[in-house]
Amino acid sequence: MTFDFHPEADEEFVQAVAYYESCDPGLGLDFSREVYSTIRNAVDYPAMWQEFESGVRRCLVHRFPYGVLYSIKPDGIFILAVMHLHRDPDYWKHRLGTG
Question: Running DSSP on this structure, what letter comes out for residue 50?
Fold first, then answer.
């Protein structure tokens, strides 16, 4: 299986990496490693996490207050959001149906 990002999810991931890197050099790299580890878990075991919304699952990122929201597709997963857990929980919903 593979994974692909919604363009807005990719952008928010890049912005979060830049934010953590600006806080402490190397922290952005740590964050990106944790997110990719979370994505790898979702790719390897896509149905393991409960549905967050209909057809959308959330896998939590270790060490950081983020979750990866994704839908399962025939060839992999489609990442809808790399969501900060203290953000409005519905901000990403306009992305449904674009993958």
Answer: P
Q: Which residues contact 95 (CB under 8 A, 6 or more apart)?
A: 6, 8, 9, 80, 81
Amino acid at site 24: D
What are 15-20's contacts with CB under 8 Å, separation 24+? Answer: 16/66, 16/82, 16/84, 20/64
Strand (E) or helix (H) holding 96:
none
Identify the H or E element spanning 44: helix 27-44
3-state secondary structure of 74: coil
Q: Topology of 2-88 in CATH?
A: YaeB-like fold (3.30.2310)
Q: Write the pLDDT tens digit of every residue in 50-87.
A: 998 899 999 999 999 999 999 999 999 999 999 999 98
Q: What value does the mean pLDDT take over residues 36-63?
A: 95
